[in-house]
Design goal:
This protein is α+β, with helices and mostly antiparallel strands. 43% of the residues lie in helices and 16% in strands. It has a five-stranded mixed barrel with strand order 1-2-3-5-4. The longest helix has 25 residues.
Length: 199
């Protein structure tokens, strides 16, 4: 490899290195510009050797630069710098930002429950648990109406279900609202009788 050809490949390597460094060293784009100029320089030097080597350098830059960019973008969130900047890592579950009201608490409590598909799920549909209907999405393909389904995940207020052979458990975990204290016998309230306060 003669001198200009060596420098052409050296500039290519330097340009690729600058692309990688740009992701880890905040430079305000200076390193990116330097990388672009270096890569263009490698092509120009390649053409100074011969048109054939110039075209080879163009093809190498066109193929290698996107690969290096893709790998760097993919790996960057897993680096200490990427983790410190990004609040959420790829693959992390979404934070639950739904309101803490009765409806959403009830939706969350349905995880693990078994119900019945009240409609064909293609993949969205309706399921029925404890006589109430809920919108749900099938994660295991099409589910026919009337088939038992299991809620295996509750994500952002959406029920994710799959077909199951488990039987439907009616009213499991249902908490009946307490009645009015005025409707209950005084013995159940733990209050002493008021007929003889000195007894």
């Amino acid at each position: 490899m003669d001198g200009p050809l060596f420098w052409s490949f050296a500039l290519l390597a330097a340009g690729l290195l600058l692309i990688i460094v740009e992701f880890f060293v905040p430079s305000g784009g200076v390193l990116a510009i330097a990388s672009g100029l270096t890569l263009v320089g490698s092509i120009v030097v390649g053409f100074s050797v011969s048109p054939r080597w110039g075209m080879i350098m163009v093809v190498l830059v066109a193929v290698i630069v996107p690969v290096v960019l893709g790998m760097t973008v993919r790996l960057w969130p897993r680096t200490p710098m990427g983790r410190s900047i990004m609040a959420r890592q790829p693959g992390d579950p979404l934070p639950d930002v739904l309101p803490d009201d009765d409806f959403h608490r009830k939706i969350k409590s349905l995880q693990g429950r078994v119900g019945v598909a009240a409609s064909d799920m293609l993949p969205n549909g309706t399921i029925k648990i404890d006589g109430e209907k809920f919108d749900a999405v099938s994660s295991g393909g099409v589910i026919d109406r009337g088939q038992n389904v299991e809620v295996f995940r509750v994500d952002s207020g959406k029920l994710h279900v799959r077909a199951t052979s488990r039987p439907v458990e009616e009213n499991r975990g249902r908490i009946e609202p307490p009645g009015s204290p005025l409707d209950q016998p005084i013995e159940q309230l733990g209050i002493d009788s008021l007929e003889d306060p000195l007894a």
